[in-house]
Amino acid sequence: MLLSIACKRALDDASKQLFAKGVTTSDDLVDYYLSAGTGGTVAALASDVMRKQPEKPVRQAYIAGVKRLAEQLASLQKTGQDHLPEDGHLAQLAMMTGALILARSTEGDEISVRFLTAVRKCFYSSS
Known about the structure:
This protein is mostly helical.
């Protein structure tokens, strides 16, 4: 139960920080999420949460936080022709989270920065 409370609080804080830091566009979110010092609560908790049983409260708290972040990301997306497709915000969240996990896991090697740069370029060109 304490784990779920801590998880919920961490994800709530991360969600609030988006607005406190002035994140108002998809590009802002990419910059914020992929920064070494501020982003990535979803990425940081993922490996621990995935080891928990689906019915555990921590898993439910994590899912709720991920959904909230996905909704925030969707609200920043442009819609219509020439923009991300339906559920593109989910693809973006998955790519950013994966890039952050890989970058942190390979820190100290040049490929670490390349993961983050590649994802930034991908989404800057699509927004």
